[in-house]
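Ticket closed. Logging final result for DUF4238 domain-containing protein.
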Amino acid sequence: MPSNKKQHYVPKVFLRNYTDDGNILHCYNFDSDECYPVSINTICQESYFYGQNLEIETQLTQFEGKFATLYAKILSEKTLKNITKDEFHDLFFSITLQKDRTRNKRNDGIDLWEYLWVNKYSQSILPLLKSYNLDLDKANKEILNHSENLWIFDIIEADINYPLISDLDIFIVENLSDINFILEKIQLF
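Final structure:
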């Protein structure tokens, strides 16, 4: 069983920017109207969110390291004036990639894949399966068990879609309150 079971859909390197000590942040829950401290190790993560194949998790971790350096630069300088063209590409790529790293996006993608496979694709290859004496139910189960690999399409989509937002004006929002916080159950993208 892979060791990195807890896979964050909001990277810890981003969450640390909202903490007082690098580990604890304040979370506001709109449903319960409560604010409470929570560890970044336990929030915005699920067991095997990207699946048990660690290739996607490994690739995302590499991206996150690059993005963390860029975000640290932006936060320390409090300006975007010193950002290079390549860094702007990375910034927009990180935004479009993060947009797709949500529970809802994952579930919608899996639902769409399952619908397309069961209702469209599997029927079109049925004659081929029969010619090889293969079982459609077994093929369906095998294909649907690999739906976790859809993340690769989200990474590709993020790289393709970043130009769609690259002409938007960007501004920095600075929290001037005494408490670092993050909002729960609200999607900002």
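Strands lie at 6-8, 24-29, 34-39, 45-47, 181-184. No further action required.
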